[in-house]
Amino acid sequence: MGGWILATIVALTAGNGGVAQGATGITLALTPSKDPTLLQEAGTALAQELSKRLDLPIKLYVAADYAGVIEALRNGTVDLAFVHPVAYVLAHREARARILVKSIRGGSATYTARFFVLKEGGPRTLDDLRGKTIAFVDPASTSGYIYPMVFLMKRGLVKGKDPKTFFKDAVFSGAHDAVLHAVLRRQVDVAVSYPHAPDTLLKDPAQRAQLTFIAETPPIPNDGACVRDGLAPDLVQRLKAALLSLNDPVGRPLLKRLYAVDGLAEATDVDFDPVREAVDLLGLAPPRR
What we know:
By secondary structure, the chain is of the alpha/beta class. Helix content is 36%, strand content 22%. It is built from ten helices and 14 strands. The protein is globular and about 55 Å long.
């Protein structure tokens, strides 16, 4: 499929699980959030472990962007996908995707978005950002665009959904690590991302020490994993059980390596109602491909 990178294919012999997809296995999609090579490596390890627990082959794909995951769920290219909150809301609306589990980090099922700047010589307040340059992640990124934009709009700083009514310029860097590096290289004045992005995406402690944040959004429901519409109910239950079983000494390090996740918990669609409000405020819809 266009816009997708084939990361790896894990083909293990399928058992007689009595599942319709048993002969061909499961296709798992990963949403991009960091360097594709690192994500591929972490995803490969997780896919191998899930394959063992399900006794099914797993094909692993790393999406080129957030919209690719939504489109793949809509057209049935993938069966299971790790998605950020906005991607799930759009996938549920557009493709009737169903959430199974949500991520837990630091004992919490929510997170925020922060406005990161240089500690030395950077802006100190939101008002200082007027006429500056901001780096967003992706138009469908929850912490990398949606919630920061709603945050700015509700404060009357951004008008008419156009960031250039407040900022001199706004760019989309495509990944959370890329927006942080844009600030470090002084290509932009501020970047938006999730709170632990510097700690998980910047390997150099000296780089992490250069950054601070000057504003933070209200809580956002954590990311999670969802399935496409039309999967057999028994397979859906097996997938959910397999994901929750990763809350053990073998699975937790794999989740941590993949998306800095400490564990997984059951999730329901209503958990994401606050995200729907933000999506509706911005009038978001996934691009058609």
